[in-house]
Amino acid sequence: MGLVTAACLAEAGHQVICTDIDSHRIASLNAGVVPIYERNLDTILASARKAGRISYTPDAAEAIRAAEVIFICVGTPPKDSGEADLSAIDHVARQIAKEAQSSKLVIEKSTVPARTGLELQRALGAYSRNGIKFRVASNPEFLREGTAVSDFLHPDRIVVGVEDESSARQLREIYAPILERRFHCPIHDGPCPPGPPAPFLVTTINSAELIKHASNSFLALKISYANVIADLSEQLGANVDEVTHAMGLDPRIGGQFLKAGLGFGGFCFPKDVQAFIHLSASVGVDFSILKAAETVNKQRIDRFFEKVRKALWVLKGKHIAVLGLAFKANTDDIRFAPALEVVKRLLDDGAQVHASDQEAIDRAKTLFPQVHYHEDPYEALKGADAALLCTEWDIFRTLDWARAGKLMARKLLIDGRNLYSPALMRELGFEYYSFGRENLRSEGSASKS
Ligand code: UGA
Asked: How far apart are CA 74 and CA 111, in angstroms?
């Protein structure tokens, strides 16, 4: 998020200086190597660099002194209790206060619990030297991994939580090129599709912080709701895709984030849901509805494994192809990826795992060196007793299952993302299991469970 923010603000014409506690990351960026896979990020970083609008330094003091406005984009990982760990925010606040030689606007972009802004303001004040004053604002980010650059440059809304008019004005100036589409869009050839500018919402800092957690948690709720409907559909002989499609046509519900499957992963939803539950409990508000969504999500892997065991009976010694490791398509991020838990359980049961992913293999290797990795999915499928689809990469969407079926020892596919049609898999003679739809057991015979 930090690098995308930096790149897009530079693309919008601002002068950006980036710093990070990880000096290897800074060295890599200085060498022109982007340390994560995110579509279009390399292009806009290269053009910002060429235009002299972005630079990287391991020296935080240099970055702090050079800036009028500072965006804090550090991680806020979960503690064991689920509470957000704000130590990186605290560390950065002290650093800013100590190193600054002039007054600054300090903006929280990291996802933080409501009222963090007040603590940030207090920390900046407590460590400030020479009477330097800091203004604090909250500017939550709604970008998704995989489409982060596009989301930043074409936002649905820009939320700024401020305590004074001048901070609101400064943030409006920063975002003016994006609101007025005065940037060279790396996504669209030519001008971006026409449309009204995104609403620029000025709120209190507490509201801005709450907006971010409330939005992510609502989307997580929606996914878990769809997953329960999938379980119900399976038991009652309905088709979850038909149900959620029809539900989504009601504009009050909306069709997005109703995709049933292995559930939500990544470094945002699982941790933000936990942090929001923790926050609400700390102020005595009952958020059982969100706890239920979290429980449903944790059970998705159990549901998946019920299918795996039903189909394969014994896992020990079986050759299993795992298609997809990243927590979703178009990213190399494997943090809290459902696929990792799938791989772990397969290995625990003594299966031989052959995994394929477009971008996440290098990261997964460090966690599971005993897995056999293949860039080419057909290599992972060669001799497999089953294929387990965990991430909805396009390459898997368009996989030639007739060809795959000839390579596999057994034509068995367990689809954790409802990517394929049961009718097509029946035609190809596959045993096919997915969520909330007809399951095809051996010899293509249909069953409800
Ligand atoms: C999410 C939010 O969508 C962003 O708006 C937010 O800015 C970001 O978190 C953040 O807080 O930084 P992201 O985690 O990148 O973005 O990914 P999503 O596209 O939201 O997907 C999250 C998970 O939900 C993935 O594992 C995905 O497979 C799963 N999902 C999504 C479903 O299981 N079903 C769906 O219908 C949609």
From this structure: 9
User: Which residue has a Cα nearest atom 14 of ligand 1?
Assistant: 268
Q: Residue with the nearest Cα to atom 6 of ligand 1?
A: 142
Q: Where do the H-state alpha helices sit in 283-360?
A: 288-312, 338-348
Catalytic residue among 18, 73, 185, 268: 268
Across 149-165, average pLDDT: 97
pLDDT tens, residue by residue, 188-237: 978 888 888 999 999 999 999 999 999 999 999 999 999 999 999 999 99
What distances in angstroms separate CA 335 from CA 20, 235, 357, 437, one per listed residue?
20, 32, 15, 28
Averaged pLDDT for residues 114-119: 94
Can you tell me the distance from the alpha carbon of 38 to that of 333, in angstroms, rounded to the nearest whole number? 10
Angle between helices 205-236 and 288-312 (to 10 degrees): 40
Q: Which of 424, 426, 79 is nearest to 271 (CA)?
A: 79
Q: For residue 328, which atom of ligand 1 is closest to its CA?
A: 28
Q: Is 448 a residue whose pLDDT tops 70?
A: no
Dihedral class, residue 212 (left if φ above 0, else alpha if ψ from -120 to 50, else beta) = alpha
Q: What is the distance in A from the centroid of ligand 1 to the CA of 297?
A: 13
Closest residue by Cα to atom 25, ligand 1, is 264
Please tell me if the CB atom of residue 145 comes closer than 6 angstroms to any atom of ligand 1: yes
C-beta of 380 in contact with ligand 1 (< 6 A): no
What percent of the chain shows pLDDT beyond 70? 98
Round the average pLDDT of the chain to a whole number and report it. Answer: 95
Told to judge if 18 belongs to the known catalytic residues of this protein, a careful annotator would answer no
Residue 179 backbone phi and psi in degrees, to 5: -65, -35
Residue 119 burial by Cβ neighbours in a 10 Å radius (0-12, 13-18, 19+): middle
Residues contacting residue 55 through CB under 8 Å, at least 6 positions apart: 16, 17, 18
Q: Whose CA is nearest to atom 9 of ligand 1?
A: 268
Taking the model in full, what pTM does it have?
0.94
Q: Determine the Cα–Cα distance for residues 172 and 360; give it in Å rounded to an integer.
A: 37
From ligand 1's centre to the CA of 47, what distance in Å? Answer: 28
The confidence score (pLDDT) of residue 253 equals 98
Average pLDDT over residues 419-442: 93
pLDDT of residue 445: 46
Report which ligand 1 atom has the smallest distance to the Cα of 222: 36
